[in-house]
Every structure is written in C-alpha cells, then in structure tokens.
Amino acid sequence: MGRLDNKGIIVTGAGSGIGRAFVNGFAREGAKVGVLDLDPAAAEKVVAEITAAGGQAIALAANVTDRDAIRGEFTRFTEWAGRLDVLFNNAGFNKPMPFLEVTEENWNAILRVNGWAVLMCTQEAARLMIPQGSGKIINTSSVAGRQGYPDFTPYSASKFAVNAITQATARALAKHGITCNSFSPGVVVTPLWDALDKDLMEMGATSKPKESIDSFSADILMGHPAEPEELVGTALYLASSDSDYLTGQTIMIDGGKVLI
Ligand SMILES: NC(=O)c1ccc[n+]([C@@H]2O[C@H](COP(=O)([O-])OP(=O)(O)OC[C@H]3O[C@@H](n4cnc5c(N)ncnc54)[C@H](O)[C@@H]3O)[C@@H](O)[C@H]2O)c1
C-alpha cells in the first residue's frame, strides 16, 4: 500500500528539478502522475524514468499560460487517470535584472508564468474537481515570496502573488471540499540555478561561477542548499490525506533561511 494509491496528480514544470523529484516520489507511493512541461522531450524522459521504476505516468505538453492547451491536457489526463485529485502548480522561472533596470517586458513575462498561470491552471483544475467534491491545489512559492530581493524584484512579486492566490483559492473553493496550500523552498540545486548563476555573472552581480548559490545559501540554518529529494517528504504530506485539514497556508521548506 502506498500513501497515494491511485490518486491522480498533475505536476506542472515536472520535466526538471523540483517537479521531477516530486513526480518520481508520488509514483513510488502509488499515484498516477501527469508530468506536464513546456518541453515535451523532458516530460517524456521523466515518464520513462518513472515507468522503468514500475510507476504509472503520462507526459503532458503545454505552456502553463495557454488556457486551451492546459484544458486539453488536463482532460486527457483525467481520461487516463480517472480523476484529478491534486494539482501542483510548480512551473516557474526567474530572469534577474538590477532593480533600476527592470523592464515592463521582464515584469510581464515573469508575472505571467509565475502568477497568472497559477490562477488560470487552478481555475481549470477546479472545473474538474468541483463535480468530484474534493481536490487539493498546491502551489510552489519561494523564500522570495516572503522577502523582496533587489535583483529578483518581479520574481519576488510573483511569489508574493502565489501566496495571495493560495489564500484566495482556499477561501473560494473550501465549500467544494478543495484545499489549497503552498510551500516555499529556499535554495534548491536545480537547473534553475545554472541559468541564474550565468545571468547574475553577466549582470556583474557576481564574479565567479557558483558565487550566487553559495552567497544565497550562506544563511541557511541547515548549512547547505537542498537537493530536490529533500523536499519530497513535505510534498507527500501536502498531496496525501494527512494534510486534509490544512488550507490557505504557505509552508516554508527552506532549511531555516527565512524565519517567519
Ligand atoms: N531552485 C530553487 O532554488 C527554487 C527556490 C524556490 C522556488 N523555486 C520554484 O520552484 C519551481 C521549480 O523550479 P526548479 O528549480 O525545479 O526549476 P527548473 O528550471 O529545474 O524546472 C522548471 C521546469 O518548468 C518548466 N517550465 C518553465 N516555464 C514553463 C511554462 N511556461 N509552462 C510549462 N512548463 C514550464 C521548465 O521547462 C522546467 O522543466 C519554480 O516555480 C521556482 O520558482 C525554485
């Protein structure tokens, strides 16, 4: 018996990093997982990993900002899995810019994926969950949803938005038996940091490879940045019936980087 036997769970941005670790963890606990990503080849690769280990998974290809594509893939998923029990709104990205140089284009691009898409994908999941009378929405926030960082201003704003959307979703959907929570990683060693490291060096904010992740990790009480696997236990709790009475909350899983 797994903790998630036959639960239908979609994770967006599951072709890499945190999402990839989550879908592998959920499949090990018996869930039927939808591996949704902008990059279809990455999603297929993760599905192959899961099925090779004996799990059940389907690749879903969509940009989380595209309502028609999301609706189509969520429908295809429920036809395959039978139902949608849990949606993890996890896809996100950052493109740092110095505070005084942030452009409207940079703001709009980040807020569209990290903010708007969380709300829109939640609406699309709710269409499927409301008739079931149950469901869980889980959003990936960040320590940048608790603190504003000057090189990450739109990103921080987008993650504060995630926390607000989490509270609003919890209040809007409780009467349908649907809960909503988010979790906030601090520094997690994923390809997102490879891109950040390069961008911050090009901006002149750092001068050598890995300086950004090392300096951002310096105040983590646990003494090291997380590997994606270190977040899986909390994700399992949020996806399973263990968290049925929890809603509207943002859980910090940051090794004690931000205390709030
Ligand atoms: N890595 C960290 O230190 C860290 C810390 C806090 C929060 N987060 C958040 O965790 C989430 C996952 O980050 P990660 O570190 O695993 O990053 P990652 O870059 O390793 O993976 C992100 C995945 O999302 C996909 N994606 C990006 N934009 C998409 C879109 N528009 N539609 C569909 N898929 C899209 C990418 O193709 C990629 O596979 C993000 O929301 C990020 O903001 C990461």
UniProtKB/TrEMBL annotation:
| GO biological process entries | fatty acid biosynthetic process
Which SUPFAM superfamilies does the entry link to? NAD(P)-binding Rossmann-fold domains (SSF51735)
Q: Name one Pfam family in it.
A: adh_short
Q: Which GO terms describe its molecular function?
A: oxidoreductase activity, acting on the CH-OH group of donors, NAD or NADP as acceptor; quinone binding
Domain Ketoreductase residues, every copy: 7-186
SMART domains tied to this protein: PKS_KR
InterPro entries with a match to the protein in the record? KR_dom (IPR057326), NAD(P)-bd_dom_sf (IPR036291), Sc_DH/Rdtase_CS (IPR020904), SDR_fam (IPR002347)
Which PROSITE patterns did the record assign?
ADH_SHORT
Q: Give the protein family.
A: Belongs to the short-chain dehydrogenases/reductases (SDR) family.
What is the name of the protein in this document?
A: Unannotated protein
Q: Which organism is it from?
A: freshwater metagenome
